[in-house]
């Protein structure tokens, strides 16, 4: 079979497009959403800005940090409440492990959870405008764990738009 230059280019582009569609479809299947809210782990969140530590001692004995997307960072910096739609907070947690080099210090051990809060006042009208996701090993935690998210935030931080985190100085 004889290929013309334009025919070869077209074949390569069609193959590339097919590969891209297949890759995107498999990524979409792998992206698991939380029950109740349909929240997923945001792409690129590990490059977001540091908001604050969120240390958890007993009973979980975890090290935690909170990261924020540009929308929530702007609101935190200006003390804007309620947070605008599009605000996203991600809390990462690891088991606390004593440092081998300095006993009183701790270092991150095994990852335990990724927790996500997404502000969309229309979609999440019944939960203060926030959707919640809790993920273990990249997969959503069970329904029971998600049922407690909003109740806890509502009982304790309703006056701060249901957000525990404050920007670290």
TrEMBL record:
Keywords from UniProt, A to Z, are: Signal
The species this protein belongs to is Paraburkholderia humisilvae
What's the name of the protein?
Cytochrome P460 domain-containing protein
Leader sequence segment: 1-25
Q: Where are the transmembrane segments?
A: none
Q: Does the keyword Cytoplasm apply?
A: no
Q: Which residues form the Cytochrome P460 domain?
A: 42-165
Q: Which InterPro entries match?
A: Cytochrome_P460, Cytochrome_P460_sp
- One Pfam entry for this protein is Cytochrome_P460
Gene3D superfamilies, per the entry = Cytochrome P460
